[in-house]
Amino acid sequence: MDAKSQICSIWLGSETGILKGVSISKKQAFNFCEMSCLSRDQEVCVMAWGDPHESEVLVGSVNGTVKTFSTDKGIFTATRECGDPSQGRFTGLAVTDSSLITCVESGLLKVWKEGSTDTVEVNVGNGICRMRQNPSQCHRVATGGKENPLKVWDLERPDKPIFTAKNVAHDWLDMRVPVWVRDIGFIPDSDKIVTCTGHHQVRVYDPSTSQRRPVMEAQFGEYPLTALSLPASQGAVVVGNTHGELAILDLRKGLVRGCLKGLAGAVRGLQCHPSLPLVASCGLDRFLRVHSLEDRSLQHKVYLKSRLNCVLLSSRELESSSPDVSGDVEEVKAEEDEVWDTMETVTEKTKKRAAQKGETTVIGVDGKKKRKLVKK
């Protein structure tokens, strides 16, 4: 099992509680879990790397536990109780200075210090949809949710947020615009933060200025946006919505650069590769897809049998050479066309039965098709 986990470059969490690893170079997928004790309360809702070397994957479940998976050994090495299921599921997971940061829907953000029972608790407000860590300043996190605006917190001074976004001006009917932050991203090499909302808006905030309202706002589609990710090349953001639409937006002009096609269900997980022009997405249609951000073509498509909630990309090359794996391997169906090829064609059967019964199709004066029995 350790050899299997070492060749995986993409990790995914499913509704059934299974941690899935995918090797793009070997065209294989693996399940890492105890099949005998699976239950719905083990559904994976968040994932994060446990260390900078990417040798550990932290998996947050609906039941409030955070499990540590070793990518070197291929097994779960630790389990920690980090939440009460009555307070909602995890909305964010991060690590800073050997401390674990968790946040749940009720707005309770906790910092779990290693080797100590003491925790730092911060109430960030109700209805939290997402908590994200600043990659360049690990002690800073951003939160947001339904009727809970974007806030930036310094965990070294968690008494109050260092930045709180202000809602946009009233609309043309002079009505208040509702707040619904669905995902957050920190723009590299700057203080700016980008968010996507449940009202199909993409907004950019700049906490370094005195302006608390967005410095840029754009809209995409007509449906709620569910996830975003920032590619390695600056100046753009990739967003996905509840109807399986993926788009690349220009953060300077607020325009859509292009759309990524092929999805058939709501997008739940989205992540761009740290150094390559690639983006991985997953969702309700049970497929992992990897698109190129240069020509927007579909590079890889893997069927994983379960509804997927989150995706985690390794920073190494996705198709690098890897050690060989022997043993029982789960073969991956890369195309759903094989399923349709094995199915019987219903229309042919209908025509044969109609011919045996002596039926024929007649087009009436009104243009409607009717079946007529012909005596032989």
TrEMBL record:
User: In its keyword annotation, does this UniProt entry include Phosphoprotein?
Assistant: yes
Q: Which GO terms describe its biological process?
A: ribosomal large subunit biogenesis; RNA metabolic process
Q: Which InterPro entries match?
A: WD40/YVTN_repeat-like_dom_sf, WD40_repeat_dom_sf, WD40_rpt, WDR74/Nsa1
Subcellular location(s) per record: Nucleus, Nucleolus
- The organism's superkingdom is given as Eukaryota
Positions the record marks as coiled coil are none
| GO cellular component: a single term | preribosome, large subunit precursor
UniProtKB keywords: Methylation, Nucleus, Phosphoprotein, Repeat, WD repeat
Query: Which Gene3D superfamilies has this protein been placed in?
Result: YVTN repeat-like/Quinoprotein amine dehydrogenase
CDD domains per record: WDR74
- Quaternary structure per UniProt? Isoform 1 interacts (through WDR repeats) with NVL; the interaction is independent of RNA or pre-60S ribosome particles. Isoform 2 does not interact with NVL. Interacts with MTREX; the interaction dissociation in a late stage of rRNA synthesis is required for appropriate maturation of pre-60S particles and depends on the ATPase activity of NVL.
State the protein's name: WD repeat-containing protein 74
